[in-house]
Amino acid sequence: MIFRTLIILAILLAIDVYVFQGCRLLFRNTAPALFRIFSIVYWTVTVLSVTVILTGLFVDWHEWPKAIRTYSFALIFISYFSKLFIVLFLVIDDVFRVFRWVAAKFFDESSAPTAGVSPGVSRYEFLVKLGAFSGAVPFVALIIGMIKGKYAYQTRKIPFKVAGLPDSFERFRIVQLSDIHTGSFMDGEPLAKAVRMVNELKPDVIFFTGDLVNDLHHELMPYKSILSGLKAPYGVFSILGNHDYGDYYRWPDKASKEENLQALIRSHGEMGWDILLDEHRYIEKNGDRITLFGVQNWSARMNFARYGNLSKAVEGAEFSSFNVLLSHDPSHWRAEVLNQYPKIQLTLSGHTHGFQFGVDIPGFRWSPVQYMYKEWADLYSENDQHLYVNRGLGFIGYPGRVGILPEITVFDLQKG
């Protein structure tokens, strides 16, 4: 752990030195006092970042005051994420210099780059300024995302057609929530606002698709009464997500971890939520019914746990004309559901958060998470089966949202 942390610190310090040397050019024609102010601010942020990381080696960050923990990590993330854009442009210039040096050595000594060659300096200055601008854009955007984006809840209404849908379920309304991450909230008002928004939609049933906490069951306690206010005549059904198992916390022993999980499972029931642990339920209305399956976390990506067992959830179940699966990780859909369970028409997932950063406008959607997950936000369809990936209601790590806003999803069932 210590060795890995020191490696990370070495990389971050290398980035800092590299970027600082490039940024010196921006102050070449300014007053020396201005450059001193920049230098003090720049290296103060670096010292604070290193201090936070080193402190984490000796004091478990879960025990830090929430505000200090959250905004310390935000400072590190925003600072280095923005610097990576500057690094990109500096590397481009260095690559050009290497190619020119090699070409000069083998083809024409007179073309070798020197410190006083104006074309090289001109290009370098241009790239540094372009890099600084490119780094400033995400820096400002991430700050705004912390202030305005994280609680900007969006309601997305999805008319969903189902072939052979029973008459009783025409216009039946499903509301999906996912990835609340109660451990990231500073107070209860934003969650109370979300609960009001959901109840005002008058859902027939509510599905929650995992990650109620970040690590520990007691993160839920301040917000338990608020989330108990979610109401739907046909119930609130839930599953677990990868964070709910406490896999990212250093437990003193296995028994403590298991006790934490069981306490969280009990809390679902105490809030009036029916948690499905590789199980199925029937939702009945006027003699008709739909079948609901819920599995524990199941991921096709090996860096995430695979606790779920869909075959166990399906065992003994009677499929209806409409069958729904709650599975936290969207990679489950392509890896298993599509190939082996053709009767499951709709899978509801979350997990990705849309990376909490990207572009999400009609006709165009982009996020870094798409390079890790083929299905990462919105509706996907294949062979009469469908997957919806909710963008998540909460946040983790970076305390904000840029472009990919928190989501409440509404499905109004219609006959196909």
Can you walk through the features of this model?
The chain is of the alpha/beta class and 416 residues long. Helix content is 41%, strand content 17%. The strands form 3 sheets. The chain has a 6-stranded mixed sheet with strand order 1-14-2-3-4-5. It has a 6-stranded mixed sheet with strand order 6-7-8-9-13-12. α5 links the parallel β2 and β3 (205-208). The termini are far apart. Residues 113-121 have low confidence and may be disordered.
Write the SSE topology.
Elements: H1 2-23, H2 32-58, H3 66-106, H4 118-149, E1 154-162, E2 173-177, H5 189-200, E3 205-208, H6 224-227, E4 236-238, H7 254-270, E5 273-275, E6 279-285, E7 288-294, H8 310-314, E8 323-326, H9 331-340, E9 346-349, E10 359-361, E11 364-366, E12 378-382, E13 385-389, E14 407-415
Parallel strand pairs: 1-14, 2-3, 3-4, 4-5, 7-8, 8-9, 9-13
Antiparallel strand pairs: 2-14, 6-7, 10-11, 12-13
Helix pairs in contact: 1-2, 1-3, 2-3, 3-4
